[in-house]
């Protein structure tokens, strides 16, 4: 116990006597000091005494897609963290191809009497999917919040990044560097974010004088899978047809584009430029470091949880879609158009 107290005291920056008072629930310790000691317990891997554990305000389901795309674990962690700060216990449900479906997870969550559910990039974003499942949930009085993807027939709060602005800043960046042949590598257009990005991309090419009209601009966009392999295939086609820059629908797709360039003997950014989307963790450490458009994950997580807790509390959160501005992060995968 003496070693444990001293370890905790050192980590928290307080005396062992103060640690002892906190662990034994004694008064006379400032709230900030108490929080420092509790944080030290967590950091050093000690279990909090039962008397110090906060009781959960309730359970909240969190349904996210598969975790191979690093942005989804980032969303899950951010939303779980905000829920925990507000006293709720999150139940994480991750979908994998061939695994548990969204509907199966929802059924289980309802059976566990969750207070609400947050859906990230769920079937609400699929324009071909039925929205009946969400109508049934809201009809049962289960508060829901939907992140990434909008459908005006679902009676729930929506939180999304501004997909159009994301494409605009990426294209503007490449045009400033002198690129005139810019392509888009994007996921299936049945999903709302992809559809919005394609539309914004077409408008941007026309606006910058890079295409005569939007149908002509659309020819510079290739729909594929949101994977490294999908990005590689689409970018390979774009580079082969003379494009000097590619805007991608995710960082994984952008890494595929870099691979495609190398397979054609092209250097990034000397010969071609690549822009990703998400700014997932570790993406700054790729070779070259990836220029990308940062999805405002933390701000969106706070907004989603705030809306959900408003609904749980019995008030009605706004039904207008909350759009969050992305941020262009310029690194080493974009450069001036090559002069030949």
Explained architecture:
There is one protein chain. This protein has helices at residues 2-12, 16-23, 31-43, 71-85, 102-111, 132-139, 163-176, 192-207, 214-218, 228-240, 251-263, 297-312, and strands spanning 58-64, 88-94, 116-120, 144-147, 158-161, 182-186, 221-223, 245-248, 273-278, 291-294, 322-324, 327-329. It has 12 helices and 12 strands. The strands form 2 sheets. The chain has a 6-stranded parallel sheet with strand order 2-1-3-4-5-11, with helices on both faces. The protein has 340 residues and is α/β, with parallel strands linked by helices.
Q: Can you list the strand order of the major beta sheet? A: 2-1-3-4-5-11
Tally of contiguous helical segments: 12
> pLDDT below 50 for ≥5 consecutive residues: which ranges?
none
Can you give the mean pLDDT? 92
Structural class: alpha/beta
Kindly report the oligomeric state of this protein: single chain
Shape: globular
Query: What is the ordering of alpha helices and beta strands?
Result: HHHEHEHEHEEHEHHEHEHEEHEE
Q: What is the count of β-strands?
A: 12
Helicity range of the residues? 40-55%
**Approximately what portion of the residues adopt beta-strand conformation?**
15-25%
- Tell me about the biggest sheet? 6 strands, parallel
Terminal CA distance: 72 Å
Rg over alpha carbons: 24 Å
Structure keywords:
single chain, 340 residues, alpha/beta, 16% strand
Blueprint (SSEs and pairs):
Layout: H1 2-12, H2 16-23, H3 31-43, E1 58-64, H4 71-85, E2 88-94, H5 102-111, E3 116-120, H6 132-139, E4 144-147, E5 158-161, H7 163-176, E6 182-186, H8 192-207, H9 214-218, E7 221-223, H10 228-240, E8 245-248, H11 251-263, E9 273-278, E10 291-294, H12 297-312, E11 322-324, E12 327-329
Parallel strand pairs: 1-2, 1-3, 3-4, 4-5, 5-11, 6-7, 6-8, 8-9, 9-10
Antiparallel strand pairs: 10-12
């Amino acid at each position: 116990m003496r070693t444990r107290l001293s370890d905790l005291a050192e980590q928290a920056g307080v005396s062992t006597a103060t640690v002892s008072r906190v662990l034994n629930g004694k008064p006379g310790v400032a709230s900030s000091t108490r929080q420092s000691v509790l944080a030290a317990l967590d950091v050093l891997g000690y279990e909090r005494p039962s008397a110090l554990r906060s009781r959960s305000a309730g359970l909240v389901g969190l349904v996210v897609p598969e975790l191979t795309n690093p942005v989804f674990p980032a969303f899950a962690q951010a939303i779980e963290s905000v829920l925990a700060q507000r006293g709720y216990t999150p139940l994480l449900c991750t979908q994998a191809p061939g695994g548990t479906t969204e509907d199966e997870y929802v059924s289980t969550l309802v059976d566990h009497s969750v207070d609400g559910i947050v859906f990230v990039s769920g079937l609400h974003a699929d324009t071909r999917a039925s929205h009946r499942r969400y109508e049934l949930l809201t009809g049962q009085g289960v508060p829901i919040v939907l992140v990434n993807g909008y459908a005006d027939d679902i009676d729930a709060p929506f939180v999304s990044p501004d997909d159009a602005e994301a494409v605009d800043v990426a294209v503007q960046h490449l045009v400033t560097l002198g690129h005139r042949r810019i392509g888009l590598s994007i996921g299936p257009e049945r999903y709302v974010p992809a559809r919005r990005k394609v539309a914004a991309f077409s408008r941007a090419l026309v606006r910058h004088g890079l295409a005569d009209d939007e149908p002509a601009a659309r020819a510079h966009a290739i729909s594929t899978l949101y994977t490294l392999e999908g990005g590689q295939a689409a970018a390979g086609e774009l580079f082969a047809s003379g494009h000097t820059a590619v805007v991608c629908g995710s960082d994984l797709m952008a890494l595929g584009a870099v691979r495609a360039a190398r397979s054609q003997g092209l250097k990034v950014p000397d010969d071609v430029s690549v822009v990703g989307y998400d700014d997932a963790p570790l993406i700054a450490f790729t070779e070259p470091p990836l220029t990308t458009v940062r999805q405002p994950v933390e701000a969106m997580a706070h907004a989603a949880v705030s809306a959900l807790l408003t609904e749980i509390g019995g008030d009605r959160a706004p039904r207008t879609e909350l759009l969050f501005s992305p941020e262009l992060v310029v690194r080493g995968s974009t450069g001036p158009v090559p002069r030949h």
